[in-house]
């Protein structure tokens, strides 16, 4: 099976072009290709498929095989792949996701997409602002935001000192979140700049999470901490998030998308 490895600020996935390939068990394949020792190594698997309602369709599977509704860094890479590989021959187009149809704008350079802006739609507030939660005997305040997929945003004064490997699973699997949750830890630098670490549902700590950055920008503006356009610094790079709160209500994410390499694997070897 042919694959392409792509990353958006270090959030890396194995992409399969399902216009040409067919995948029988994507959950199982996601677990196998994501393994960083016995597989290709990635935060999960993304299928780029034909769509009856948009220009193409994205299906996204975490490293543990669970399917998510949305992936912000993933959809920018889907946009780049579709544009660079001529699946779609225009610089603005629609991608069907499990969270609805998302509109993409490609910034090309020398015929290749270098940056993609995604209209992530209207966020949904899923908690009180803020809501109290007790995790492993300690009280925390979080703001719940859905970007199609679930996020819980926490504020801290020093995110670098967090032991996410130890703490992450307790936040992800807390009984408050029966579907589990993505968890963002935010340090506010100023009204236009925040720093973030993320513990992703189904994949653990990743270098970046696009929908998580969007949820964090919305939570930060909502709670009066920042303005409606912020730069979000993540482990693997920066994203710009704009929430058009007083207009369409939509959230827009802009950032890079990179193709790392292409290859072929024999599934029986994974
Ligand atoms: N890294 C992604 C989000 C991937 C899905 C997430 N782990 C979930 O289960 O919802 C992003 O860039 O948004």
Could you describe the 3D structure shown?
Belongs to the diaminopimelate epimerase family. It is built from four helices and 19 strands. The protein is α+β, with helices and mostly antiparallel strands. The chain folds into two domains: 2-119 and 256-269, Diaminopimelate Epimerase, Chain A, domain 1, CATH 3.10.310.10; 124-249, Diaminopimelate Epimerase, Chain A, domain 1 (Roll), CATH 3.10.310. The protein has a 19-stranded mixed β-sheet that branches. The chain is globular and about 50 Å long. The chain starts with a strand and ends in a 6-residue tail after the last strand. It binds the ligand N[C@@H](CCC[C@H](N)C(=O)O)C(=O)O. The site of the ligand N[C@@H](CCC[C@H](N)C(=O)O)C(=O)O has 18 residues, from helix 2 and helix 4.
């Amino acid at each position: 099976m042919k694959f392409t490895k792509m990353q958006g600020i270090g959030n890396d996935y194995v992409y399969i072009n399902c216009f040409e390939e067919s995948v029988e068990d994507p959950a199982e394949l996601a677990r196998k290709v994501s393994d960083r020792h016995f597989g290709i190594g990635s935060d999960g698997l993304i299928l780029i498929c034909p769509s009856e309602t948009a220009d193409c369709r994205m299906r996204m599977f975490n490293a543990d095989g669970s399917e998510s509704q949305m992936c912000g860094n993933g959809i920018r890479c889907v946009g780049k792949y579709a544009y660079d590989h001529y699946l779609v021959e225009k610089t603005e187009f629609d991608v069907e996701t499990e969270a609805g149809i998302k509109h993409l704008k490609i910034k090309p350079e020398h015929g290749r997409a270098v940056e993609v802006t995604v209209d992530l739609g209207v966020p949904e507030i899923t908690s009180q602002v803020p809501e109290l939660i007790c995790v492993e005997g300690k009280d925390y305040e979080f703001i719940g935001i859905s970007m199609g997929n679930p996020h819980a945003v926490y504020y801290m004064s020093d995110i670098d000192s967090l032991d996410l490997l130890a703490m992450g699973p307790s936040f992800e699997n807390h009984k408050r979140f029966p579907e589990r949750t993505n968890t963002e830890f935010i340090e506010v630098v100023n009204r236009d700049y925040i720093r973030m670490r993320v513990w992703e549902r189904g994949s653990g700590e990743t270098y970046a999470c696009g929908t998580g950055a969007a949820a964090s920008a919305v939570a930060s503006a909502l709670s009066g901490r920042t303005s409606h356009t912020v730069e979000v610094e993540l482990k693997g790079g920066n994203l710009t998030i704009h929430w058009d709160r007083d207009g369409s209500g939509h959230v827009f994410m802009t950032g890079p998308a990179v193709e790392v390499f292409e290859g072929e694997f024999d599934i029986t070897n994974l």
